[in-house]
Hints:
Helix 2 packs antiparallel against helix 4 (95-114). This protein has 483 residues and is α/β, with parallel strands linked by helices. The longest helix is centred in the first third of the chain and has 20 residues, at 95-114. It has helices at 40-58, 62-78, 80-91, 95-114, 152-158, 161-165, 179-191, 209-218, 231-243, 266-278, 295-310, 330-345, 374-377, 393-400, 416-425, 459-465; strands at 2-4, 6-8, 11-13, 20-24, 31-36, 122-124, 131-139, 142-146, 169-173, 199-202, 222-228, 248-251, 256-260, 288-294, 349-352, 364-367, 384-390, 408-412, 430-433, 453-454, 467-475. The strands form five sheets. Strands 15-16-17-14-13-18-19 form a seven-stranded mixed sheet, sandwiched between helices. It has 16 helices and 21 strands.
Amino acid sequence: MYETALLIAGHNVAAQSGQTFERLNPVSGEVVTRAAAAGVADAIAAAEAAAAAFPAWSATSPAERRSRLNKAADLLEARGAEIAKAVRDETGSTMGWGHFNVHFAASLFREAASITTQVGGDVIPSNHGSTLSMGYRQAAGVVLGIAPWNAPIILGVRALAVPLACGNTVILKSSEVCPQTHALIGSVLVEAGLGNGIVSVLSTDLKDAGPVTEALISHPAVKRINFTGSTRVGRLLAETAARYLKPILLELGGKAPLIVLADADVDAAVNATVFGAFANAGQICMSTERVIVEESIADEFASKLAARVAALPVGNPNEGEFVIGSVVGQATVDRVQRLVKEAVAAGAKVLTGGSANGTIMPGVVVDHVTPSMALFREESFGPQVSITRVGSVDEAVALANDTDYGLSAAVFTRDLAKGFAVAKRIDSGICHINSPTVQDEGQMPFGGVKASGYGRFGGKAGIDAFTELRWISIETGTRRYPF
């Protein structure tokens, strides 16, 4: 069993109240982690430590920040087996998913390291000829990052890497599902020289999450917030941030459509769907949940997809390596089964699936799903994908947009000009042509529209999100005044 402390001011400490909470392994039901349960007093202590560390860290040279972030990447990879095991134990994912998290998160550290010298501004022509005016970017202050459990290392690192690169100090509020996993990120950063308040990690019991989070958002030192997670919680956080006039970056839920046009390479579309729908058992914000297929190729696509999904290895991640391991909890199984059952009652057809063994469930493919079904609209966040048949490109685009969400999308066609035209018409922050809905790169502007959130992680967009843009001018001559 893991014993997880809070990381405040560079030290592993118990909660001031002495309280803890437990995380159970989703497969065995055994206690896997006992974590310190931060309260409001701990939140204030973390914010004060981050505020105290900010002046020195923000004044650190870009080269020094780059060096420490690159060291964090190396240390993360060196501890890959340990971290992947914690991911598996707390979330039920496969070891492969844990290792992928580690390697991709290391790339995010390295990408963030590369932008330390890119936090630039502009010289802006002034109407006063003797005035030098600049748009100057500087670190904002303390950044609160709130990370989810589903890609815990990737999204935990994303919550803090670019903010650190820009010279901010960071508080990472971990998920109650994976407190040990997120604590390991803090451990790596301290070892890389980012302790003493530059990075803090707080774990909280779910019942305390509201007041602890508000204490952090309301603290005067906290200048930016970023959150990745559900739309429901994102709305609550946005309301709280608005009360305190704090900018917040939100990456929320999704119901990603993958459009397969009549001229598409069907095998390529099937391969992308299998990966996009069933990586990490469909528990990814970009997961392909809706395939919208032109009728002329729908039978071929459905048959090939069902065969591929039926052959995916499914099993207990504690006993071997599988493509689909456990989902995070029984609630996911219940939600997917409810959505599928309701769709079948309304006329949909299950092409492949099977009974769940606890939290381990095989992939499900449901055909003839219509927009009137909840399966078409509600985010399942589990190992299922639906097929909706359409008669035209225009109908495909209309159905792709017929959703509250707008994070990721994909279009398959051999006509790239047509694919680009369709991509421009889809209401999503991300759209890929002839590749899956699930993909990410640290330098790309990552984020959604509508109920999938607002703001962008990654690259120059991340610099914009986590710095303050100021106007600074220098008068080089003699100004004349009207009085």
